[in-house]
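R.M. (postdoc): so does anyone remember the format we settled on? I'll just put the structure tokens first.
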């Protein structure tokens, strides 16, 4: 899904607020799919925190 959203997220003509909503609704949900079953390690937590910066 992220590749499908790249054009929208990188477009200068789209307001930042809309990009944020798309990211939260589409990209983040795909990124975190199945995270309930992950063995939570410090390395994984750091990577997830970096994506939210």
């Amino acid at each position: 899904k992220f590749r499908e959203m790249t054009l929208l997220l990188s477009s200068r003509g789209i307001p930042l607020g809309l990009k944020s909503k798309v990211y939260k609704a589409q990209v983040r949900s795909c990124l975190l799919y199945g995270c309930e079953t992950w063995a939570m390690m410090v390395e994984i937590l750091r990577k997830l925190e970096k994506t939210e910066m």
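R.M.: ...and that's the designed sequence above, right after the tokens. Also worth knowing: The mean pLDDT is 79. Residues 2-51 form one domain.
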